[in-house]
Hints:
Helix 1 crosses helix 2 (about 30-55), helix 2 packs antiparallel against helix 3 (about 60-70) and helix 3 packs across helix 4. Helix content is about 65%, strand content about 0%. It is built from 5 helices and no strands. It is elongated. The model has no long low-confidence stretch (mean pLDDT about 90). It has one domain (about 15-100). By secondary structure, the protein is mainly α.
Amino acid sequence: xxxxxxxxxxxxxxxxxxxxxxxxxxxxxxxxxxxxxxxxxxxxxxxxxxxxxxxxxxxxxxxxxxxxxxxxxxxxxxxxxxxxxxxxxxxxxxxxxxxx
Length: 100
């Protein structure tokens, strides 16, 4: 086991385990690799969704929300646009935050 890792035990539906095993088999990797990747992707998405929620509730700026999400300002703008979240941001603020 690698340093700085922990073991977590969870119960999942049998059908989900079957899906995980099928993906692992197709990719030629172990179940653990699929689960680690899925958890990491899920956590990243949750961070983005949380930051977007904070931005929508006017609890933080667009730039700060991008920092909280761990993504670039443009990535957050793309996420917000794809989820039909209106931007309350002027062009001069975008340019300032990008350092142009």
